[in-house]
Amino acid sequence: MLTRHMIERLRREHGITGLETAIVLIAFVTVSAVFAFVVLSTGLFSAERGRETVFAGLAKTRGSITLSGGILATSDQTTITNLSFAVVLAAGGDSVSIDPSASNGRTVISYIDSAVTDPDLTYTVIPVVGDADAVLEAGELMEIDIDLTQNAQIALATNDTFTLEVKPPSGSYLVVRRTTPPSISDTVIDLN
Questions:
Q1: What stretch of H or E contains 51?
Q2: Tell me, what DSSP letter sits at residue 187?
Q3: Is the domain defined by 65-190 classed in CATH 3.30.750?
Q4: What are residue 175's phi and psi, to 5 degrees?
Q5: Which parts of the chain have pLDDT scores under 50?
Q6: DSSP letters along 13-24, please?
Q7: Which of 47, 82, 90, 173 has the least CB density, counted as fewest CB within 10 Å?
Q8: Which residues, 6+ apart, have CB-to-CB distance to 89 below 8 Å?
Q9: Pick from 154, 192, 168: which is nearest to 87 by CA?
Q10: In angstroms, how far is the first alpha carbon of the chain from the final one?
């Protein structure tokens, strides 16, 4: 009889009550909600970091200046003594300080040729269009004049290739590469 009683007991089927099912479902929903919160928080954080990166890149390129016209060289009919060129803001660019006397946040102009490198040329700024300050703003045109006689090592003669790098405090560089003509018989030469 003992075996029969055990067999009957084993054959009985027991089910889960509604309360047990509800507890299990609530646990699944809670875990899913926590997981979703973690995923959304991570996504929002990475999206914010991406946005900051994009705006930093835009700020870097928006301050760019560009050449407006050619480069004029003045000579003593033997060597080039002076270079001058006009600059404007690139489309959509932010204002750029091109004050040569500023101690902080100023535009630096470098000179490079096959024999000489000068990382900081002396230059002057002449406002052509716009107000008289040395901040290049939208709609303004500034002329930059570089006196090459300030550096005794620079001696641009015939067929010399040189590079000027105009480096504003923010934004991309303006790189200008030119070659002097085969004859420097004129006092003013257009280096296009």
A1: helix 18-62
A2: S
A3: no
A4: -110, 125
A5: none
A6: -----HHHHHHH
A7: 47
A8: 64, 65, 66, 95, 96, 136, 137, 138, 140
A9: 168
A10: 115
What are the DSSP calls for 81-145, one per residue? Answer: EEEEEEEEEPTTPPPEE--TT-SSS--EEEEEESS-EESS--EEEEEEES-SSSEE-TT-EEEEE
Q: How far is Cα 175 from Cα 169, in angstroms, rounded to an integer?
A: 15
What pTM was estimated for this model as a whole?
0.66
Residue 179 CA to residue 159 CA, distance in Å, equals 6
The candidate with the shortest Cα–Cα distance to 105, out of 134, 141, 139, is 134
The pLDDT value given to residue 55: 64
Q: Which pair of tokens denotes residue 164?
A: 């000027």
pLDDT at 109: 92
- 8-state DSSP, 59: H
pLDDT at 16: 62
Task: Note the pLDDT of residue 65.
Answer: 84
- The pLDDT of residue 112: 92
Task: Using alpha carbons only, give the angle 86, 153, 164 rounded to the nearest 5 degrees.
Answer: 25
* Amino acid 174: pLDDT: 85
Write down the pLDDT at residue 58: 56
Q: How does 90-102 read in b/e, with b if 16+ C-beta sit within 10 Å?
A: beebbebbbebee
Neighbour tally for 116: CB within 10 Å: 14
